[in-house]
Amino acid sequence: MESPATVPALHPLDAATTLEALSDDRFQGCIPPAYANFIGPFGGVLAACLLRAPCMHERRLGDPLAITVNFGGPVAQTPFEIHARPTITNRSSQHWALELHQDGSIPLTATAVFARRRETWSAQEAARPEVAGPGHYPPIDSRDLPAWVANYDIRVISGGMSFLADSPRAQDSSETLLWARDLPARPLDFPALLALSDVFFPRIFVRRPTFVPVGTISLSTYFHADAGELADQGDAHLLCRARGKRFHNGYFDHSGELWGAGGALLATTHQVVYYKE
Amino acid sequence: MESPATVPALHPLDAATTLEALSDDRFQGCIPPAYANFIGPFGGVLAACLLRAPCMHERRLGDPLAITVNFGGPVAQTPFEIHARPTITNRSSQHWALELHQDGSIPLTATAVFARRRETWSAQEAARPEVAGPGHYPPIDSRDLPAWVANYDIRVISGGMSFLADSPRAQDSSETLLWARDLPARPLDFPALLALSDVFFPRIFVRRPTFVPVGTISLSTYFHADAGELADQGDAHLLCRARGKRFHNGYFDHSGELWGAGGALLATTHQVVYYKE
């Protein structure tokens, strides 16, 4: 008889994003308290759950290329259902409509595109920021932050949360540079990369010296890496950069980049965020 | 009896995006040949049609904040149906699931968020590029380009299509700066701004010296302007900038900005595009 000690424990991210297939198009999940945010679970882990549904679907074609997740209302720490429906399947791409249902409402909707790549002329136009390695920066202290932060090793290079400073003051730039990976370390895959694309704290926390209520409204992530590039990444830290362009009467945007250890731009990400001040 | 000459003609954009309500949640439209692209209609005008459905819906709350449109297959120049369903309505925001149905398939899906803004601390962080006015640049010659281009006054400042140059050669940067507005001029509103957010020719046409097949896969536009700012814009040219970050085995991204005459950042936009070379 096998001893329980020899059964490898699921990584917290895998435990949080495990889905049970209820039928071809319906999957059940539940986010544990370990990934709680201020209200409801961390958006990145919810997005990862939504992405896992087409990944598990028997009609899946190719790998994730793009996903947009819309956050309409809080998700409770109780079971939910994800409905995943392929709307059109072409020779090399496939479109998905996704919804998260809970207690008779639809707090989240999403669309995703999966695709097969073929070798073509390629070029990485953006330049990776030049910074010292993750060992040069201390990990963020997650003790006074929402539970989900403890599942990430986040090392801020510049542009931290202003209200955590000894003498908080307003900043002119919302740009943040940070290193991040799962904690404990975990090999990168598409759901983990998607969750990491939401690891940036809200840009208004960089600009403003005080805490204000915020919530992501819509998040889009484009995957530039293929599965091979993700496998090459292993569990190394990602270099992440984000900056907002306009804060206007309750809503701001940001655009972000996630760079791999070898210098490849693995993903770009964009979101629009609600704020109250 | 009123003379036909006194009835003002519909602007081509309004003619192309007119929807007829078939029921609360279903709308019929049809894109005329004037907005044709290489295969099917111009994506910007299809996106504008999709946005018009919730704008017309009796349950609409507030103004557009964000929309993502996914282009899964070609749309024919025949009537189509848009299905528009509010998935969740909060006090100040509303989420929509949108689909375009034609001939038994769903070539387009979209999600949109509408919102009411309230006055808060605001800041425009991005800097508007400093360029000479639209009168300093010649309008693009649309004669050898798809029909839709003739509905826009596009004046390239830098980063034009390389294959149109006298001696086409590869470029290191995909950045384009251009002035654009509807032709004939038309007061700006949300559908027109959304269509303009897709006015950038594909970034690979800037980088590469030859024409290659391309198609937008997914487009997300965030509206930073409220209806009052759009009204202030009138029919002035918008200053538009776009640049790609990575071209990788068949897919590239771009991020764009649309600046108003008064210097406000009216919208930001992102897309992922298929290419074959």
From TrEMBL, chains A, B:
Question: Taking every annotated instance into account, which residue ranges of this chain make up the domain Acyl-CoA thioesterase-like N-terminal HotDog?
Answer: 39-114
Specify the species: Parahaliea mediterranea
List the SUPFAM superfamilies hit by this protein, alphabetically. Thioesterase/thiol ester dehydrase-isomerase (SSF54637)
Query: What is this protein called in UniProt?
Result: Thioesterase family protein
| Domain Acyl-CoA thioesterase-like C-terminal span(s) in chain numbering | 139-274
Gene3D superfamilies linked:
Acyl-CoA thioesterase, double hotdog domain
